[in-house]
Amino acid sequence: MKRLIGNKNALECIKRNAKYWTFKINENLEVEMNIGGQTKLIKPEEVSAQILMKLIQSAENVVCKPIKNIVLTVPAYFDEDQKKATIKAAEIAGLHVLDLISEPSAAAYAYGFDQQRFSDTNLLVFDLGGGTLDVVIVKVKDGIFNVVAIGGDTLLGGRDFDNALMDYFVDIIEKKYEKKITENVKIMQKLLKECINLKHMLTATEDAK
Ligand SMILES: Nc1ncnc2c1ncn2[C@@H]1O[C@H](COP(=O)(O)OP(=O)(O)OP(=O)(O)O)[C@@H](O)[C@H]1O
Ligand SMILES: [Mg+2]
């Protein structure tokens, strides 16, 4: 959803990425959902709103009080439309956005780089996420972060590694069993889960089954 939300090039993104998505999305950028046996069309903003509601619920369980005001993080490369759409998602979730900060700045905060001893430091933040690779230079000055240079690939992330593994195994399975499996959502979902597990294992070991 993050690749689609407020994105002027969303259709191109769908063309490039939809191969192993286990949901359907139409040319008006509406996701087809089966809710209580009925097909409903919902916008990426509404899907993001649901995710935000779930996150807020988890956070509320920890702090034991209601949360209304939030600070959202967005990729450093997000343009105004993408930022607006993200804020809209928060509003649909009934939340008030105090501020938007960039994800690399949030990472720098999380690692304590806002402390005085890091004043006047340049950081290189390398963030290989699920959907995007962001390589960003953040300038720290008196606890304030400024993104001064952005690089990376907005269409490269862990999900592409998953897709590469899927391509590999779908081919083997279809040849071995002489059956097409790509139309079967359940099988594809199961295979995807296995591919992700395999990828995670291969981070720590030379080989995995
Ligand atoms: N041990 C691991 N080895 C390899 N990949 C991993 C490992 N643990 C997590 N990942 C992959 O990292 C990705 C998720 O990363 P992260 O949580 O940073 O993404 P995100 O912030 O949700 O995505 P994005 O920033 O692109 O929106 C997933 O593709 C996941 O499979
Ligand atoms: Mg991320």
What is this entry, summarized?
The chain has helices at residues 10-17, 44-63, 80-92, 103-110, 158-177, 185-204, and strands spanning 24-25, 31-35, 38-42, 69-74, 96-102, 121-128, 133-141, 144-153. The protein is of the alpha+beta class.
Structural summary, described in words:
With 209 residues, the chain is an alpha+beta fold. It has 2 domains: 10-114, ATPase, nucleotide binding domain (Nucleotidyltransferase, domain 5), CATH 3.30.420.40; 158-204, no CATH class. It is 43% helix and 25% strand. It has 6 helices and 8 strands, in the order H-E-E-E-H-E-H-E-H-E-E-E-H-H. It has helices spanning 10-17, 44-63, 80-92, 103-110, 158-177, 185-204; strands spanning 24-25, 31-35, 38-42, 69-74, 96-102, 121-128, 133-141, 144-153. The strands form 3 sheets. A 3-stranded antiparallel beta sheet has the order 1-2-3. A 3-stranded antiparallel beta sheet has the order 6-7-8, with helices on one face. Strands 4-5 form a two-stranded parallel sheet. A hairpin with a 5-residue loop joins strand 1 (24-25) and strand 2 (31-35). Helix 5 crosses helix 6. The longest helix has 20 residues, at 44-63. The radius of gyration is 20 Å and the shape is globular. The protein binds adenosine-5'-triphosphate and magnesium ion. The site of magnesium ion has 3 residues, from loops. Magnesium ion (MG) is lined by residues 103, 127, 129.
